[in-house]
Description:
This protein has helices at 44-51, 74-84, 100-110, 115-128, 144-156, 174-187, and strands at residues 2-12, 17-28, 33-37, 59-64, 67-68, 85-89, 162-166, 192-197, 208-213, 216-217. Strand 1 (2-12) and strand 2 form a beta hairpin. It is of the alpha/beta class. The protein contains six helices and ten strands. It has one domain (2-217): P-loop containing nucleotide triphosphate hydrolases (Rossmann fold), CATH 3.40.50. Strands 6-7-8-3-9-10 form a six-stranded mixed β-sheet, sandwiched between helices. The protein has a four-stranded antiparallel β-sheet with strand order 2-1-4-5, with helices on one face.
Amino acid sequence: MIRLFDLRKTYKTRHETLEVLKGITLTVPDRKFVMLLGESGSGKSTLANILGLLDTPTSGEYWLDEVPIHTLTSKARTDLRREKVSFVFQSFNLIPTMTARENIELPLGYRGVPKEERGERVEAVLREVGLSARAAHVPSELSGGEQQRIAIARALVVEPSLLIADEPTGNLDKSTTKAVMETLTEAGRGKTVFMITHNEELTAYADEVYALRAGLLA
């Protein structure tokens, strides 16, 4: 579960203080698909970075699975992020010289998962995203939609409790967007998915939809 209370984020420059998040209070139950709408500059990526433990709020409270994130040290946040959080980005961030299978397996190696278990988990998520037949292909041999589905598989293979998707369909055409959203919805079942988008047409896939305007939820 995600719980935010009066979450604020302020950036200071030489000339001004910019309040990006102006007091966000929100509760997201486990295993929900939540979509956050917002135009460029609305603060949605800042909020996603805080939820993903890549950034910290200036003030307020953030609880993830009953852990008070706002009280943790930097190392504790990093350790918790590796344990509980995965990301899917607009740019697929696949390593071009690695096959789809190798790209998916990579984070498991960092976590010290035994090789036999790594293979089983990779094959399972390849089946979930419908790309078992493309496992031996490098990214340049895959379509944009296939690359994003591999990126989703890579995010899910570590079995996170929270998946953050930041504009995952931003580089895709309409038909490919549909395929990727269906993959994200089906393969992400049982996870809390927090997706950022500016595309209001995608809200039909979400359990809950919020809009962020000028640093405030609307």
